[in-house]
Specification:
Layout: H1 15-39, H2 46-96
Helix pairs in contact: 1-2
Length: 97
């Protein structure tokens, strides 16, 4: 029989750290890319410049996706808190009656 994995609504799988990490790496690579474009407008290393640009796009895209997931996990955590609070209020009303 398959074992079920239950994840907490308060667990964000470290997306906050990873989206910051990838956005910073993407920003650094973007600065390097812009410096290369300014210093070598028609350079011999067009493949290198293209590779840097590809990694900039990948890192920034991944960072933005992880930011979206982080925000969704935060909203999920808030909803879980509200549901738990409402359930505890319902339990208290039942015990009073």
């Amino acid at each position: 029989m398959a074992k079920k994995h239950i994840f907490s609504a308060h667990n964000d799988f470290k997306t906050e750290f990873f989206y910051k990490f990838f956005l910073i790496i993407g920003g650094i690579l973007l600065i390097i890319y812009l410096i290369e474009i300014i210093l070598h407008p028609i350079g011999l290393n067009d493949a290198t410049i293209g590779t840097i640009l590809a990694f900039v796009i990948l890192c920034l895209g991944l960072g933005l996706m992880l930011y979206f997931f982080s925000r969704q996990f935060t909203k999920l955590s808030q909803i879980a808190d509200e549901v738990e609070q409402n359930e505890s209020l319902d339990d208290e009303e039942e015990t009073k009656e």
